[in-house]
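Q: Hi! First time asking for a complex rather than a single chain. Here are the components, and I think there are two in total. Is that enough to go on?
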Amino acid sequence: MADKAELVAFEQAVLPHLGAAFNLARWLTGNDHDAEDVVQESYLRALRFFSGFRGGNSRPWLLAIVRNTCYTWLRRNRMDDSTAELDEDMPAMDSASSNPEAVLLSAARRDLVQRALEDLPAALREIVILREMEGMSYKEIAEVTAVPIGTVMSRLARARARLQQLLAGANSAEVRA
Amino acid sequence: MSCKEVQELLHGYADGELDLVGSLEMERHFRECAACASGYERLRGLRAAMSSSLPYFQPPPGLERRLRSRLRTAAPAKRSIHWQRAAIAAALVLTVAGAWRVALMSQRSDSSDILAAEAVSSHVRSLMAAHLTDVPSSDRHTVKPWFNGKLDFSPPVGDFPSQGFTLAGGRLDYLDGRPVAALVYQSRQHVINLFVWPAPERPDSEIRATSRQGYHVLHWTKAQMNHWAVSDLNARELSDFADLVRKAE
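A: Yes, that's all I need. Here is the structure of the assembled complex.
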């Protein structure tokens, strides 16, 4: 049966990326339950679009669908200002002011890093996740997020500068406390 | 490279997105500028903190099973549309392939024009971020062996520092429908890409010059190798470079 063969091809192409899909959805929605709903919906959408997939690397293709599904879902279920459009002209903050010793690896520090990332606007957070956790190239990230490669680079720079600032701020607060 | 440029390219460098020439210039700048070097160290520190701190959320147990069963119930409904689409797509592919062949035949006489355009595009691409598998080295005894096993020929690799053309490295590129060696030279602030690949049974030729999008392109055949040199260097100096390469072989 042709459908069976197609379903098998689909599963072979996208199921290996279930971990990446869930991780991205989890970081964008903020909890396991919503992330699972979004992942299920994404896979059903991906199956509908599979005939338009021209082969090649299925991971950015799938993650683009997961990402779009996340944003649709967030807009429908929350008034979340973290998905608001970014002002691209806002310069990246100068990272030179941050503390070079920002690498403490205690449990508290790990929480801090995680919270700092959660506090970033979604448009910056997603790029950090795709780059640092999925190891994607700028080109692949551009494919997932539907922005030019130059924008990927400038958003990454801004995201990292913000993280350095947040962590440095938390550091000096710790010292004072 | 100025501190400002280094700041702009810092993330591209850290993420391995710069080309050979850009990476070399960044490294040179870090050796000379402590402020930029420590900026880079801070960035590395942040990335290390992220890789050791950020949780990678695992899908809950049973999600894959639940997904598979939902996909199975969703799949059968769309068969007919699917085959129609496939048929239309196949017809389109055939039409396009036909048109493409006609286009190719009518352009065959301009093959060196096409090659010049390809060579210039490769040159421009090599100067942008997001490119390259390469060997950044100014030592031709490093660059030449690097191509072994990557190409079915061994490109001649020269270096002419005393004449102002310094070897900066090599990379694989793709021209004229085949993998070729791209040798990268620097002359002051200018980059020269020299593309080399075999030209079996072809006699040595004179240098032919053309220009495109503001780049000068020289090509010649020597010792049964095609050579295409592309640069924004002025025509006279690029032709001096071509003469040096030809004499060296």
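A: Residues 101-109 of chain B have pLDDT under 50 and may be disordered. Let me know if you'd like any chain examined more closely.
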